Amino acid sequence: MNMISQLRQRVSEDGAASLNIDEFNRLQTEWVTRAKIEVLPPVARECAWGMDDGDPDSGSMWNSACGQSWFFYEGGPEENNQHYCGNCGGKVLLPAQDPTL
Ligand SMILES: [Zn+2]
Fold first, then answer.
1. 50: part of which helix (H) or strand (E)?
2. 9 pLDDT tier (thresholds 50, 70, 90)
3. Distance, CA 79 to ligand 1 centroid (Å)?
4. 51, 57, 77, 90: which one has the fewest Cβ atoms less than 10 Å from its Cβ?
5. pLDDT digits (tens, 9 = 90+) for 63-90
6. Can you give the residue ranges of every domain in the chain?
7. How far is the CA of 62 from the centre of ligand 1 (A)?
């Protein structure tokens, strides 16, 4: 039985539990291990966005590769701090800047 389960059992049976330093260290290691599993960063993925219609100076509609659309009244995703797709969570990939602009 792992230390977390042992501690839970002791507390549920006796209402409280004390730990020696070895048990504490085991408990800490188990919690850190669990935390790493549970807080792993989301799978790194990207979501390509492209401007569908409009002018960045007067409002623009953007479509994402995952099938959603967003309208910005001013600027585009970058100017509106949309660095991650609100639908799929991927990092927003914007089209290369048009060199003629
Ligand atoms: Zn997306």
1. strand 46-55
2. very high
3. 18
4. 57
5. 999 999 999 988 889 999 999 999 998 9
6. 3-35, 46-93
7. 11
